[in-house]
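Practice problem: predict the structure.
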Amino acid sequence: MNNQSVLIVGGYGAVGRQIAQILHDRHPDLHILLGGRTPNMISPFKSPRIKTIIINSNWEDPLQNVNENVSLVINSVNDIHDRILLAAVSRKIPFIDITRWTELFEQAIRSLKHSKLYAPVVLSSGWMAGTSALIATLFSSSLTHVSINIQALYSLQDKAGPDSADYMDRMSIPFIITEPSGRRQVYPMSEPNKVTFPNGYTTKCYRLDTPDHVTLPSNDHIDASSFRISFDSKVSTLSLVAMVNSGIWRLISGQRFRSLRRSLLYKPGSGSAHQIMIEINGRNQKKQTIKRSIAIIDPLGQTHLTALGAVIQAEKILRAQSKNYQLPPGIYYPEQLPDKHFEPSLIIDFYKQYGVTIIATES
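Answer:
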């Protein structure tokens, strides 16, 4: 990856600095720019290949300080007005975004309809930077008529950046899911499923809106997808369910009560494991019903798993550039970005290399 450079917007944050560290250590000739709003920030780790730069998503052109040739922009901060996205597109720079909740995800797609694309734009904002969707797709690719259920156990002691709490502002807004029978509207924190996670913790998981509802059904072999979540505190989970279903959460919606909402659930700790259970139902070539369960455990938590998801996407783009073949310009989802030099099994090996446990069973 000679003479390649990556700009990480939000490079000082909980996720951004881990993306930078992983890419830095894996690619000794890669140069990395860390972008943030605060001038004269000290790099989170020392290296002659690390530089800092001021990037502000509120500027009309957030990338106005980018004077050198950049091979890729990775955005790990909220881009409410699509300014970072459109600034990268106008410069013909490949772009990865890992921060958008579904409304902003769909907003980005609408914004890009008015722009001519010269490079890949990867909207990788599904759970843990598309990790769940990517692994679900890998383990379901041999099946047809697939339904995918993703369930996450969120530890209240896990590390988290402030942008990760924005999902709490969506708790009173209905969303659309795709089922084998068609699309229908559901509400957050409704329709619980009882799930046992790899650590033996059994709890009810409730619906939550994530871009996985959009990206997974766009694959030809997948007919339905759903995402649910639970916290590792049953008291916190049930309290949130009660507040949402009673209408209290709607009453405290809006900017005025934003601090109150965050104080209820956003209390990041020093770190804790993140766990995901993926249930896959489909048919094999003999038309037999197949059920697969995929357990994902990252002992370093959700910020680490998110960083790994971003690195997977980044390396696909950087590898294409270093091999002198061009990825077609367009909008990609994390499970759809092609890479002819990287076998699917190597993706699983990559996660395992960084301490992530992935266990697949079939019945």
